[in-house]
Design goal:
single chain, 606 residues, Glucose Oxidase, domain 1, 2 domains, 4-stranded parallel β-sheet, 37% helix, 14% strand, globular, ILV_EDD_C, lyase, iron
């Protein structure tokens, strides 16, 4: 199947734009890969330290240069439901490695914070920066240079992007990402949202709210709505960094364990010691990045990836832009409706055909590059499958993805899309550049022209709602929420309040230099506004009552004030000292000083 002309043209321009940095990157990882396993050149003292705690068989294998050694980078902790299942994985991986004559060692752990716990709390101001901390933490583990390949154990919001940045920094090493899977279905997401709104209106109390939340988030595994965590899993599969069919299998099941063991053996099969050497830096090229963006649009994925994909691509020397993402949205139909873009959760998506069905539909319509190299081998077509447990109860067998969707309301075909485009696009105008996700916003709500109401914290908007002062049509401007100001926290707690006002018939929207989240929903929200207020952006010069026009379909974000007046305005003076201390925020002051703009990935790595 020939790749769609629009997809091909965007890929070509990314390739041309990236050529100098990509060529330099490739030359570096090829030189490192050509040097062979570093373990063989370590001094005897170095090597003895590296395997001192191993058993006799592992020591013997690690003493030579023929047996591959697999590094494990794990984001395990037992507070996060998505990562708690990883407690068992190191032993599964070690056992599987020994079965094929290899060894495996936990190279290091990385922090893993839960945005669900920190939403609306001070800890959320560390969330985005944790991505880059995770990359650096993984680098510390891999710096021992004991490994021929790596498996990365991570699931959630900043964790997978941070691990990808690390994997590409060590791009001479093969990499396979191993997920834990989503928790089983609990309280329906629309019911959870209904209770949240009732609580915001004071119609139910905290006991009712906690009961609802506990029924939604009720066991081990990823939260089941289609936020950043599950968007991460989609990306790892469609970019070829998972084994086929492994994204959305529930934790602690025989198939989940079989897939983990299979991933281990595959990671050992593709080292430089064998005949299928597949370094991660070769897998993630311009075509794989475009495939990831197309997958994000086709599934209505997380707005956070307008940051993460840029940072991940940059780690491989690839220069992706918001304009590329926006243009790819125009070329990609929406094929999945998973909450908040529908009522289903990821378990329903997987049961309807899941990633195999989606990949086949996109491939058959020329919307994905098939001529990629993946951790599984040549081409993306082998991912158009459904993984099952073998008759022996230990192995994985694969069969072609179903021809028909198991639920056309959840997953549809390319000739009957839910929307002609992915619904994630760039906004631009005199306020700056921003991102909006319109796939869950009703068409009649995508254009809002209304006066600004200014807020400098989430708490201020919440207090205004409780006081009943958010009357009439308005656009809430929540500013000084960018990475330089306070680490760019998610403002997801604003959604229930603004949603209630929408339901009352008011026209409302949000404009912010902060983030919303993978759960961005029905409220039109111009997020990631760049330049941010702290950097002197126009968002910091908007005044109470200024008219703003946000047009999600036209892609514009305009402050309707005379340009001559705007030229005389100064950025509002806001005391940010309260964001600089407590919950570890003082330790991240260097990050706030070094971080780049949102439209460059909001990274501290330049």
């Amino acid at each position: 199947m020939t790749v769609d002309r629009r997809i091909d043209e965007i890929t070509d321009r990314i390739r041309e734009r990236s050529r100098p940095t990509r060529d330099l990157y490739l030359s570096r990882i090829r030189a490192k890969g050509a040097a062979g396993p570093k373990r063989s050149t370590l001094s005897c003292g170095n090597l003895a330290h590296g395997f001192a705690a191993c058993g006799p068989t592992d020591k013997e294998r690690l003493s030579g240069t023929v047996s591959p050694n697999l590094g494990i980078i794990t984001a395990y902790n037992d507070m996060l439901s998505a990562h708690q299942p990883f407690e068992r994985y190191p032993e599964l991986v070690r056992e599987a490695a020994r079965e094929v004559g290899g060894t495996a060692q936990v190279a290091g752990g990385v922090p893993a914070m839960c945005d669900g716990v920190t939403q609306g709390q001070a800890g959320m101001e560390l969330s985005l920066f944790s991505r880059d901390v995770i990359a650096m933490s993984a680098a510390v583990g891999l710096s021992h240079d004991m490994f021929d390949s790596v498996v990365y154990l991570g699931v959630c919001d900043k964790i997978v992007p941070g691990l990808v940045i690390a994997a590409l920094t060590f791009g001479h090493l093969p990499a396979i990402f191993v997920p834990a899977g989503p928790m089983t279905t609990g309280l329906p997401n629309d019911e959870k949202a209904r209770i949240r709104q009732l609580y915001a209106e004071g119609k139910v109390g905290r006991p009712e709210l906690l009961e609802s939340e506990s029924k939604s988030y009720h066991g081990p595994g990823t939260c089941t709505f289609y936020g950043t965590a599950n968007s991460n899993q989609m990306l790892m599969e469609i970019m070829g960094l998972h084994t086929p069919g492994s994204s959305f299998i529930n934790p602690n099941t025989p198939l989940r364990d079989a897939l983990t063991k299979e991933a281990t053996k595959r990671a050992l099969a593709i080292t430089a010691l064998g005949n299928e050497y597949t370094p991660a830096g070769i897998v993630v090229d311009e075509r794989a990045v475009v495939n990831g963006v197309v997958g994000l649009h086709a599934t209505g994925g997380s707005t956070n990836h307008t940051l993460h994909l840029l940072a991940m691509a940059a780690a491989a020397g690839i220069k992706l832009t918001w304009q590329d993402i926006s243009d790819l949205s125009d070329a990609t139909p929406l094929l999945a409706r998973v909450y908040p873009n529908g009522l289903a959760d990821v378990n329903h998506f997987n049961a309807a055909g899941g990633m195999g069905f989606l990949i086949r539909e996109l491939l058959d319509r020329g919307l994905l590059h098939d001529d990629v190299r993946t951790a599984w081998g040549a081409g993306l077509r082998p991912y158009a499958i459904e993984a099952k447990l073998g008759a022996d109860g230990q192995s994985v067998v694969r069969q072609p993805a179903p021809v028909e969707s198991g639920d056309p309301k959840v997953l549809t075909t390319g000739d009957k899309p839910f929307s002609a485009n992915g619904g994630l696009r760039m906004l631009e105008g005199n306020i700056g550049h921003a991102v909006i996700k319109v796939s869950a916003v009703k068409p009649e709500r995508r254009l809002v022209e209304a006066p600004a109401k200014i807020f400098h914290t989430q708490g201020e908007l919440s207090a205004a709602f409780q006081a009943g002062t958010l009357t009439g049509d308005f656009i809430a401007v929540v500013r000084f929420q960018g990475p330089q100001s306070n680490g760019m926290p998610e403002l997801h707690n604003l959604t229930p309040f603004l949603g209630i006002l929408l339901d009352r018939g008011q026209k409302v929207a949000l404009v912010t230099d902060g983030r919303m989240s993978g759960a961005s929903g029905k409220v039109p929200a111009a997020i990631h506004v760049t330049p941010e207020a702290k950097a002197g952006g126009m968002i910091g010069k908007i005044r109470e009552g200024d008219m703003i026009r946000l047009d999600g379909d036209a892609g514009t974000l305009e402050l309707l004030v005379d340009p001559a007046e705007l030229a005389t305005r100064q950025t509002a003076e806001v005391d940010l000292s309260g964001n600089e201390f407590g919950i570890g925020r003082e330790l991240f002051a260097p990050f706030r000083l070094a971080v780049g703009a949102a439209n460059a990935g909001a990274s501290v790595f330049g």
